[in-house]
Structure formats: C-alpha cells, structure tokens
Amino acid sequence: MTLILFVSLLFCFIIGMPIAFSLGVASVATLQFGSDLPLTLAAQRLFTGTDSFPLMAIPFFMLAGELMEAGGISRRLFDFAHALVGFIAGGLAMVAVVAAMFFAGISGAAAADTAAVGAISIPAMIRKGYERGFAAAVQAAGGSIGVIIPPSIPMIIFGVVGGVSIGKMFLGGFIPGLLIGGSLMIVSYIMAKKAGYERDAFLGFAAIKRTFFGAFWALLMPIIILGGILGGIFTPTEAAVVAVIYGMVVGFAIYRELKIGDLPKIFAKAAVSTSTVMLLIATASIFGWILTAERVPQNVAAYLVNLTSSPALLYALILVCLLIIGTFMETSASLIILTPVFLPVIHQFGIDPVHFGVIMVTALAIGMLTPPLGICLFIACNIAQIQLSAIVRFISPFLLVMIGVLVVMTYVPAIVMFIPDTFGG
C-alpha cells in the first residue's frame, strides 16, 4: 500500500495536480489497487477529517481577516507603522515589515498578510525609488510572519492534528514572531543603506499619536483574542467568532468603511479561502489515515531513534527535513501529514509538543519564501509586476536570517516557551 500511495502522489505532483487533489487521488488509488478496503472509506474519512470543533476557528478567522481588511485596517496599520519607523534609512521597507506584524495579529494567514499589506507597501516603495525585486522580497518575508504571530491557522491545524493546546501554541508564537520581524527590519536597514535608498522625514510625535488612535481598534483585536483565551473567557474557536463580531462592529460602527453591499463579496472571498484549506485537510486526513494504518509514523520514529540518541541532532535532522519539504508542499498539507509522523519521535525524546509545534510552523513558513511553492513570493511578485527571477537575489538575505532565528528558537526553548509557561497554566 505504501508504495502505491507514494508513487501515485509523486505522479500527481509531476503532472501539476493541485496538492489537495493529489492527496485525494493517491489515497483513492491506494484503497482501490492496494487493499481490500471499500472506497466508501474515503468518503467517510473526508467527513471525519473535518468534523472537528477546533477547526471551526479557520473559517471564522478568515472571515474576520477579510472584514478587517475591507474596513480599511491595512491602510491604517501602514500609516501607523510609517509614522513609527518611516524616517529610518530604508524606512518604507521597515514599515512593510512592521505593518505585516500588526496585520498578522488579525489575519492568521501569510498569504492574506502579504496581499493586504503588500497592496499598499510595494507600490509606495516603488514610487520612492526602491528596486521592485527588493520591495517584493521585503513584503514576502514580512508576510510569512502571518502564520507565526497569533492567531495562526497553521497552529490551529497542528493543535487539532496533534492534540496540542492551541492557546499555548498562540502564546508561544509571540516572541518568535517579534524576533523574526526585528531581524527582517535589521536586514532591510542594511540592504537599504547599501543601496542608498532615501529616507522619509520624521512626521513627529503628533503624527504617531494620530495614526495610533487611527489604528487603535485594529491593534486591540489580537489583545482581545489572546486575553480572552488566556483568561479562560472563551476557547480559540469561540475567539474566532468574537473576532468576526468585533470586525463587523469596527468596520460598520467605528471606521464606517464597511457597507452592507460589501458583505456578499467578503463572504465569498472568505468561503473560497476556507474551502481551499478544508478540502486540503479532508483529503490529507485520508492520506494520513493510510500512513498510520501502514505504521509509517512508527517506523520513522523507530528509525530516527536508532539513528541518534541526541535530541539536538534529532532536531537538526527534523529541521532540514521541514525546510526541504516546505519548498514544495503547502504548509497545511505538510502539517497534517507530518505531525503524526514526528510527534511519536519527539515524545520519546522528551521534547515539548508546544515548542515543537511552533518550530514546525516557523520552518514551514520559511518555505513560503522559496520556489516552487513560495506563495508569499508569488503574491509579492504579482503586486510588484515582476518575474520570480527578479526577486531571487533579494530574498536570500531574508531567508538566511529567518533560518538563523529558527535555529536559535530550536536550541533555546525558552524563547518559545517563556510566555506559555508563565501565563498558559
């Protein structure tokens, strides 16, 4: 069965079939030609794979992100970030990263983060004389933080698949997200200084105050979400519903940029995004069930345990594996398939699953900046109207610094675990 499963999957990848369909086709082919199990099992697993209360957070967080974006949130966040750091050398590049970090606390998705902020930041950088490739690279790197700073849809998926506390995962993503964001800003400063890009004038503390109050309601949203989860007021799934209600109140009553007529388009966009992720989860659940039935996770765990007795070396092997897989497989699919494979291994080595989950999500987020499946790269290139080849030399320094932070996070667990251990109970 295993041979048929992986050969079928490889064939689907070669002919360019979307990942969700590739997983489904490979699974059905395996059931049909490699076992005596009925094909009705595939339909059953499609349903049970998505029949999960925590997974309901995904459509609600996506809808909340669409509501906040349509309500003028990304522009206000950009204006506040510009008032804060726009006067530094390469300031607009830093603004792109800071605005992406702010928006990460709303969207939970890297693609949404890159698109929402990039639509404003990339044209602004180009108008100021920044090279298009550099502008696109900065925004693509900043957008990848969207799955690290909570709320994070990949963290929800990991929590559901691995039976790990989603609330603790959210708390664990804060410091890593800030570290990566700060590192990207330093790289942006160095590259902009070397290229001689102009800096904007300091707008003054009055502008900072004005733009802060303009973005206040957007900045308050992640605080409400995490405060409610931390205080035991609501679960992560219920927090997603709160985020939707909050987005509507802000958009209609406070910023007043949302109109009733905008809702059908917003709901449609959120539905399309949600259906893409949920179909992937459904088909991946069949794939994962077959892997488990064939004892692939247990065999991989036994192999790695026999290969090394060092947790440090084990982590190094897993990181290399994740960084490679992240280049050609979508993050959600990778999490659904690989989480059951790696969790038995890390349990044997005494590694905290919350720490591992944040590391895994971060490693796969780096894959969003690498071809052939670098979704953040493609979105940024499309906005900047350039070919992928024009961004390659600019993205490399950002990739290197993100991998560096990932390694530090891996071997200094306190970076991830300080907030969950202190406040997560």
Automatic annotation (TrEMBL):
Pfam families assigned to the protein according to its UniProt record, in alphabetical order: DctM
Keyword Cell inner membrane included in the entry's annotation: yes
Membrane topology: Multi-pass membrane protein
Localization, UniProt: Cell inner membrane
Keywords: Cell inner membrane, Cell membrane, Membrane, Transmembrane, Transmembrane helix
Transmembrane segments: 80-103, 133-157, 169-191, 212-234, 240-258, 270-291, 303-325, 332-350, 356-383, 395-419
InterPro entries to which the protein is assigned, alphabetical: DctM (IPR010656), TRAP_DctM (IPR004681)
Protein name: TRAP C4-dicarboxylate transport system permease DctM subunit domain-containing protein
Residue ranges of every copy of the TRAP C4-dicarboxylate transport system permease DctM subunit domain listed in the record: 6-415
